[in-house]
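W.,

You were right to be curious about this one. When I first looked at the sequence I had no strong expectations either way, so I just let the prediction run and decided to look at it fresh. Below is the sequence, 295 residues in total, followed by the output.
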Amino acid sequence: MSEKLQKVLARAGHGSRREMEAWIAAGRVSVNGEIANLGDRVDADAKVRLDGRLVSIKSADDIICRVLAYHKPEGEICSRKDPEGRPTVFERLPKLRDARWVAVGRLDINTSGLLLFTSDGELANRLMHPSNEVEREYAVRTFGEVNDFTIQKLRTGVMLEDGPAQFDYIKSAGGEGMNQWWHVGLREGRNREVRRLWEAQEVQVSRLIRVRYGMIELPKTLPRGGWIELPLEQVNYLRQLAGMDPETRSMLGADKHSVARAAQVRSAKIRRAVRKSKVGAAGTSKRPKPTRTRS
């Protein structure tokens, strides 16, 4: 069965359908050697190229929707490659055959915590759409005076350069003197929004950690730089948020032995990824060794 070209490209993880439509209109996509046009439909055996590079085409039935929870450390960027040679969040992820991991949103270089990746580009694009408004929770350490008036302003709304913004909630999480910890909730994903909200009240953010995305929490036992594959129940929770049909298959084993073995393999991969990062930090100036800060 043929499908619209932009849908096939979006599912392969190259961007949203709207972005793919723009790329097709710009002449960047070819099908079977011919420049593609908006509205073209393709079959599974079509030879699709993007900027001259062959694109792996799979039908929706051929793709098993997988989701990883990754504990992003500070110092990594959310791009596949960086001209400055900085480490990226994609370097430690497990390899996929004829597919690629797509990040669900971004965290800036100085923010750590929960970052989701999926093998289903359509799922990622739907979750990132502004209309979805999935709640994110962050642990924030601030430096500066925070009084009741400050909290009230952040709850009711602050005018930023790109429009009004506010936290859904703010909860005190302890601290001493001018250094305080808070848990805040936010349903938007604007650039550096958490930091800018606090800075608008003349309060600096000294540490920022995303601890929850919707109902998916950052596992407390997951080390920085480690990842874990989500079970089918959590995958389908995300698909439901995105208005998609449930997935029925999983790469995780169904029996206890398979689950235990998968956990052992996953733990070994996490240890290797973290160890590789430490070795890289010691052997190159491009990956500075992170400074550990006690919370």
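Here's what jumped out at me. The first helix runs from residue 5 to 11. And, maybe more interesting for your project: The radius of gyration is 21 Å.

Coffee later to discuss?

I.
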